[in-house]
C-alpha cells in the first residue's frame, strides 16, 4: 500500500488528483489522512472551474455530517465532488439531491415501493434472471464477469422492479454508467450522445411509461408512483422521471460494483472463495464484508449552509464537504486489520451511508440481489479463475472493476 502521494507534505495531498485513483481508492493516502488530518482540504487542481473540497475520512465524522442536513445540505451544491458533472438542476430534481421537507415527502412515497413484502416478492424473479444469464454462459471456457454476468443481471432486476421493458436495459445501463463517470471526458465509458442528451431521452421514456401506467396499471413501481398520493396530491411527471432515473442509476451501478469487486477479491483469495463454495449459508455475512471493503460509491457530497467549525477546521458557507466511504469503512478505530478481507467478519459499515435522511433506499433489494448473485454464480462455477489482468474504473465516485476476465476451471 505504498503511494508517492502518501509521502508529500500533508497540505499538498489532493484527493481530486485522478492519477491517485488508477487502481481504485488510494487507501494509503486515506490511512494517512485519518491519522494526521481527518478533515482535510484538497484543491481539486487539474479540474477546470472546480473549487476544492473538504475530505471527511473518519467514520464518526461521516456519521455526524450525514445526520446534520441543516448544516450539510444535499440540495445546495449537489451530491458529487465535481460541480460540472451531472447538471445541478437534474440532481435537485432527484430526492437524493433535495433537503427536507421536499426530500422527505418524495422519499416516503418511493419507500412504499421498497417494503420488505415487495422486495421478498421479487426473490424468485431475481433468481430466474440470474439463472438465465448463467445459462447463457454455459459451455464457454472464458467470459468476462462485469459485462457478461453482473451487468445483464442487475440491469434486468432493476428494470423489472421499475416496470421498464427489457429492450430498454442497455439504454438505462449506458445512462447509469456514463452519468456516474463524473463528467471527465477521459473517464466516460464509450457510448453515443452527451450525458445531457441521455438524460433527455431517459426522461422522455419514463414520461411515456407513466402515461401508459395511468391507463393500464400493473404491480410495478412505476404504477405505484403514478397512482400514489400525498396530502391529496399526485407526483408530477418530472418527479416520477427523476426518481426513476435515480433508481436506475443506483440500481445498476451499485450492486454490479459490489458483486464484481467481491468476486475479484475472492478470485485473488481462493481459500475464502472455497469457504463460500463449501458453505453458501455464509454468503449474506460475506456480502457485508464486501460492502465494507469495496463500497460501490466512493463518496457523496454535502455543501455547508453556514460557517461551521468541524474537526478543528473552519468550514465556510458554500464549501464542498466530501464523505469518503472507502476510508470510513476502513477506519482502524472500528475495524481490526481494516485492509484484510475476512468473509466471516460481519462488520458494521457505511457503504449505504451513515444514517440520516439520505440513507440508501435500496439496502434490502441490494442485499437480496447480491446474495442470489453470489449463491448462483458460485454454485454454477465453483472453480472460476482469473484469466487475465482485471481493469478498474478510474473515478472518484464509481468504485468498481471495469472488466474481470475469468476462466472456467
Ligand atoms: C450495493 C448496493 C448499494 C450501495 C453500496 C448503495 C449506497 C448508497 C449510498 C452511499 C447512498 C447515499 C447515502 C447518504 O448520502 O447518506 C445511497 C442512497 C440511495 N440509494 Fe443506494 N446503494 C446501493 C443499492 C441501491 C439500490 C439497489 C437502490 C434502488 C433500487 C438504491 C437506491 C438509493 C436511493 C434512492 C438513494 C437516495 C436516498 C435518499 O436520498 O434519501 N441503492 N445508496
Question: What are the SSEs and their pairings?
Answer:
Blueprint: H1 4-7, H2 27-36, E1 39-42, E2 53-56, H3 59-67, E3 72-73, H4 88-93, H5 102-111, H6 116-120, H7 123-137, E4 142-144, H8 145-162, H9 169-179, H10 195-215, H11 221-227, E5 229-230, E6 233-234, H12 237-268, H13 270-278, H14 283-293, E7 299-304, E8 308-310, E9 313-315, E10 320-324, H15 325-328, H16 363-380, E11 384-386, E12 391-392, E13 401-403, E14 405-408
Parallel strand pairs: 2-10
Antiparallel strand pairs: 1-2, 3-7, 4-14, 5-6, 7-10, 8-9, 11-14, 12-13
Mind explaining what this structure looks like?
By secondary structure, the chain is an alpha+beta fold. The protein has one domain (4-408): Cytochrome p450 (Orthogonal Bundle). The chain is built from 16 helices and 14 strands. The strands form five sheets. It has a five-stranded mixed beta sheet. A three-stranded antiparallel beta sheet has the order 4-14-11.
- Portion of residues in helices? 40-55%
| Alpha-carbon distance between the two ends | 30 Å
Give the total of domains.
1
Strand content: 5-15%
Mean pLDDT: 92
Q: Tell me which ligands are bound.
A: protoporphyrin IX containing FE
Instruction: Count helical runs.
Output: 16
At the first level of CATH, the class is Mainly Alpha
Strand arrangement, largest sheet? 1-2-10-7-3
Net shape: globular
Structural class by helix and strand composition: alpha+beta
CATH architecture classification? Orthogonal Bundle
- Report the order of strands and helices: HHEEHEHHHHEHHHHEEHHHEEEEHHEEEE
Largest sheet: 5 strands, mixed
CATH superfamily membership: Cytochrome P450
Structure summary, number of beta strands? 14
The oligomeric state of the chains shown is single chain
